[in-house]
Amino acid sequence: MITTLKAGDDSRFNWRTINEISAQLNANMVPDQQRNAGVAELRRRGRDAGFGLPFEIYQSDTWLKYKVRFGVVITTGEPILTTSGIETEFTLTSGVIRYWFLLTISGGTSAAISTAATVPAWSTSIIPIGWVDTNTYSGTSRGVIYQFTHDNIFVPCAA
User: Fold this and answer.
1) 88: left (phi over 0), alpha (psi -120 to 50) or beta
2) For the CA atoms of the chain, what is the radius of gyration?
3) What is the pLDDT of residues 57-69, one digit of tens each?
4) CA-based, 20 to 30 A from 41: which of 12, 13, 75, 92?
5) In whole angstroms, what is the distance from residue 148 CA to residue 48 CA?
6) Tens-digit pLDDT profile for residues 52-109
């Protein structure tokens, strides 16, 4: 049985269908190159539906306001959604070279996106998503986004 995406499905949850389809293709011994192309197409369709990449950092309505799209984190149990909405908005400060965006995992059961103006202490429960430079082009009111994460996150050691 092959799982399909249905018209009207909430594309924020495409990862479940993508994982099911990938597992089914693997079980049917579809060559890696074909399987990878199919999974890439499913991800592209999810992005084209208007929700963008998971954990994508993007500018909001002013140059110091940035949003991060929600994403899914899987540690060792059930998948964790980072927020109940589509995105989380942050207001940054001008003049910071690396304004970090972080995913903090708590006990393998919850995850939240936060920010820090200084380099955080990394651990298995703190994952960098990227940073925004509000210093380099502050004279022209423009930030520069450095994105690290482009997909949902699977971290079995973070529980």
Assistant:
1) beta
2) 17
3) 989 889 999 999 8
4) 75
5) 20
6) 678 889 898 899 999 998 888 887 777 777 765 567 899 999 999 999 999 888 877 7
Calculate the CA 83 to chain-centre distance. Answer: 11
pTM, 2 dp: 0.66
Contacts of 155 (CB under 8 A, 6+ apart): 73, 74, 75, 105, 124, 127
Which H or E run contains 156? none
Both tokens assigned to 57? 């950092």
